[in-house]
């Protein structure tokens, strides 16, 4: 009985090591492309909000200058 558990554990370990040694598959490549697209979208949103904040700050400065 103990030998069966040891055999199962050894086979599981070999299977896991075999999977980790595999080359990139299409799913991993697709996942990386999705990650890059999400990161790029996040960067664009951050840039847009920074630009909007700059414009609002400029508008506030102009109003402040006219009220002085």
Topology readout:
Elements: H1 2-20, H2 26-67
Envelope shape: rod-shaped
Subunit organisation of the chains: single chain
**What is the CA–CA distance across the termini?**
89 Å
Average of the residue pLDDT scores: 84
Stretches where pLDDT falls below 50 for ≥5 residues?
none
Give a quick account of the main beta sheet: strands, pairing sense, barrel closure: none
Q: What fraction strand? A: under 5%
How many beta-strand runs? Answer: 0
Helix and strand succession?
A: HH
Figure out the total of helices.
Answer: 2
Kindly provide the radius of gyration, computed on alpha-carbon positions and rounded to a whole number of angstroms. 28 Å
Which structural class best describes the helix and strand composition?
A: mainly alpha
Share of helix, binned = over 70%
Walk me through what this model shows.
This protein has 68 residues and is mainly alpha-helical. The protein has a domain at 23-68. It contains two helices and no strands. The protein has helices at residues 2-20, 26-67. The relative contact order is 0.05. The mean pLDDT is 84.
Short description:
The chain is an all-alpha fold. The chain has two helices and no strands.
Q: Any key phrases for this structure?
A:
single chain; 68 residues; mainly alpha; 2 helices; rod-shaped
């Amino acid at each position: 009985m103990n030998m069966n558990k040891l055999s199962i554990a050894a086979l599981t370990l070999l299977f896991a090591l075999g999977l980790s040694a595999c080359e990139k598959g299409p799913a991993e490549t697709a996942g990386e492309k999705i990650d890059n697209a999400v990161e790029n979208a996040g960067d664009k949103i951050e840039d847009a909000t920074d630009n909007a904040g700059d414009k609002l700050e400029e508008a506030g400065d102009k109003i402040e200058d006219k009220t002085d």
